[in-house]
Design a protein that fits this description.
Helix content: 40-55%
Radius of gyration: 29 Å
Strand content: 5-15%
Distance between the termini: 41 Å
Largest sheet: 5 strands, antiparallel
Number of helices: 4
Strand order of the largest sheet: 4-3-2-1-5
Number of strands: 5
Structural class: alpha+beta
Shape: elongated
Length: 216
C-alpha cells in the first residue's frame, strides 16, 4: 500500500510538472522589459519568448510577432527551445512507462519487472527536470548579467519573466516526483512466514478409529 501511494503521489507531481514545462515553453514571458531609469514610465511593455516577441500597450492591446529566423536568435534561446521540447517529450514518454509498470495496471505481470519499469520512469522524469533546468538557469544568468552590465543600454535590459518561475516550479515537481517513483519499489512477495497445513486425519481399516500417528 505504501509503494502504491508513492507511485500515485510521484506520478501526480510529475504529470503536473510536465504540463508546467509545456506551459512555460509556450509562454512569451521569458524576458520582460526592465523599468529602470528613463523606462520608469513607458507606453508599452516588451515580452521575449522562445517562439515570439510581444508588445503590450498601456491600453491593454497586445501584438505578437513570431521569430523569423532560428539562427538569428541568441544561443540561450536556441538551447532553451531544444531542451524544453526534449523535456516535454521525455515527460510524455516517462508517463507511458510509469503507467505500463504501475501496480494498478496489468500490462506487466511480474511484480519485480513492474517495479523496475516504474523506477525507469522516475529516472526519465528526473532527466526531464534536469533538461528544463539548464536553459532556465542559463537564461536567468544572462538576464542578470546584462542587467548589471553598465555597457548594456537601459532600453535593452530585461528582467526575469513569469515563464522562468513556472519552469523552476516544474523542475521542482519533476525532480520530487521522479525521486518518489524511484523509491516506490514494493517489498518482496515473501513475507517470511510459511503456512503449513496438518495432514488429513484418516481412519484405520481395522477399528474405524483415527490413526494415533495424527496426534503426535
Amino acid at each position: 500500500m505504501v509503494s502504491a501511494g508513492l507511485e500515485i503521489l510521484g506520478l501526480s507531481l510529475c504529470v503536473v510538472g510536465s504540463l508546467l514545462v509545456m506551459v512555460a515553453c509556450g509562454l512569451p514571458m521569458w524576458k520582460v522589459t526592465a523599468f529602470i531609469e528613463a523606462n520608469i514610465v513607458v507606453a508599452q511593455t516588451i515580452w521575449d519568448g522562445l517562439w515570439m516577441s510581444c508588445v503590450v500597450q498601456s491600453t491593454g492591446q497586445m501584438q505578437c510577432k513570431v521569430h523569423d529566423s532560428i539562427l538569428a536568435l541568441s544561443h540561450d534561446l536556441q538551447a532553451a527551445r531544444a531542451l524544453t521540447i526534449i523535456s516535454a517529450v521525455m515527460g510524455v514518454l516517462a508517463l507511458m512507462v510509469v503507467i505500463a509498470g504501475a501496480q494498478c495496471t496489468n500490462c506487466i505481470r511480474t511484480e519485480y519487472v513492474k517495479a523496475r519499469v516504474v523506477n525507469a520512469g522516475g529516472v526519465l522524469y528526473i532527466i526531464s527536470g534536469l533538461f528544463v533546468l539548464v536553459p532556465l538557469c542559463w537564461m536567468a544568468n544572462n538576464i542578470i548579467s546584462d542587467f548589471y552590465n553598465p555597457q548594456v543600454p537601459a532600453s535593452k535590459k530585461r528582467e526575469i519573466g513569469a515563464a522562468l518561475y513556472i519552469g523552476w516550479a516544474a523542475t521542482a515537481l519533476l525532480l520530487s516526483g521522479g525521486t518518489l517513483l524511484c523509491c516506490s519499489c514494493p517489498s518482496s512477495g515473501n513475507s517470511g512466514y510459511s503456512v503449513k497445513y496438518a495432514p488429513t486425519k484418516t481412519r484405520t481399516s481395522q477399528n474405524g478409529e483415527y490413526d494415533k500417528r495424527n496426534y503426535v
